[in-house]
Amino acid sequence: MDQEQLKLEEVNFFTSLYGELPDSMSDLPIGIFPHISDKDFNFLNTPISNEEIKSTLFDIVPLKAPGSDRYHALFYQSQWDHVGTSVCRWVKGIFDDESIDPDLNNSLLFLIPKIQNLKGFAHFWPISLCYVLYKLVMKVIANRFKKVFCNLIAPEQTSF
């Protein structure tokens, strides 16, 4: 199998594994699903604080896999007194409709073998390496949604 065929097979495998074609939702009755309350909506739209940014950064595992810039979260954590103001300004800018630099939005995807005798892409774990600052923004968003989801998900939906 040549490189182009291999690339095509890889893209097709992971697209079918992680991709999703949404079904039409036009037939669903209106009002049967919970919705975000005004209080939760206002909470989600509250400006991000420096403390929220800092605590989120310090929740990231210090030496977890770095992005292609090779910086770990430990760098930002250990140098917080020097870089904290700039990091907070940058993160707040993202939430004020500034765009993320395309280079920071890139991730490296590595395929780690699960077994010795590889016979297809199902025998790999895909590992995505993202920049720490990108992870930080995503974790701030995720942390906020965690606080709201408990009001939207019924107790019997435990697998979510």
TrEMBL record:
InterPro entries the UniProt entry points to: Retrotransposon-Effector_Assoc
Protein name: Reverse transcriptase domain-containing protein
UniProt source species: Gossypium stocksii
